Amino acid sequence: MFELAADGLPKRGELPAEPTQADRFGKARTAQSTAVMEDYVELISDLIGSGGEARPTDIARRLGVSHPTAIKTIARLKREGLAVAKPYRGVFLTEAGEHLADRVRARHRVVVDLLVAVGVPRDAAEQDAEGIEHHVSDATLAAFADYLRRDR
Amino acid sequence: MFELAADGLPKRGELPAEPTQADRFGKARTAQSTAVMEDYVELISDLIGSGGEARPTDIARRLGVSHPTAIKTIARLKREGLAVAKPYRGVFLTEAGEHLADRVRARHRVVVDLLVAVGVPRDAAEQDAEGIEHHVSDATLAAFADYLRRDR
DNA sequence: TTGTAAATGTAGCCAAGGCTACATAGTATA
DNA sequence: TATACTATGTAGCCTTGGCTACATTTACAA
Question: Which partner for B144 in A15, A110, B15, B114 could form a disulfide, CB atoms 3.0-4.6 Å apart?
């Protein structure tokens, strides 16, 4: 069942060959660590797009976290070049942040649509997509899009 | 728009109404926090099932983490009543741990199959399932199973 | 039996992402 | 304008899940 060396290691010095189970878990962990950033960026983009302003308190409320948590994460967003903000002014996205937001939004839509298309109830689809979307690779996303195109 | 108290709690005594965006994010976060436990439990079960023993070093290697990390997480498993282990002996699952492992394993299989069924390449499916599975609710899992039943 | 290598365990560090409590800045209103 | 409420920000703490470095067991081979 497991096509790994008996010890699970690809023996250094040999070809990397196919991804090991360890690689897969590692990737899943990485994805999880970008998930929060993605959620913030998408939400900020939504807030600005619909109301004109993204304030830390609104962000916190929408995400269901305390405002210090939101502020701390916004600081990280700034550190990573995704957002800019001056004290007591709202938060804005950099170009990179906007691009990320667009990709995240598109992916979210595809994931929800795919779930619904295979028969998942709408509310469960919306709920689960929130977690699932961050783990959908480009290959999988493309396959989802193809499926939806064929399906309709 | 937000029928929550300012503190994010749905004020007992009032109607729960529909889940808010904050609820959804919160659930996604919770799921993520159980993901590691699930991975460990499944792996331990696999190791015992196939080789008879689950040693911290093997677990660490398979998961792609250092052995202290594995040991620390195993301690948490013990704390939560999912595993038992005595120093320098292997790790074993409690009944609760076994049940969890079974559920996780079954869910993993369904998720991979579903992905493949909608056209995701096998390797991407295996890779992404590792992260996705932890966010698949019972409702969604049931829908996946139905789809697969119809599909074949 | 003794020595050594591998496995296991411990200590202590880090960043992320939560939180509460408290301080300060802005805003709106009496 | 003075005041009070709300938003924002800061400090400091917690847990998880990583890590490296070091100590201790265990197991195996001379």
Answer: B114
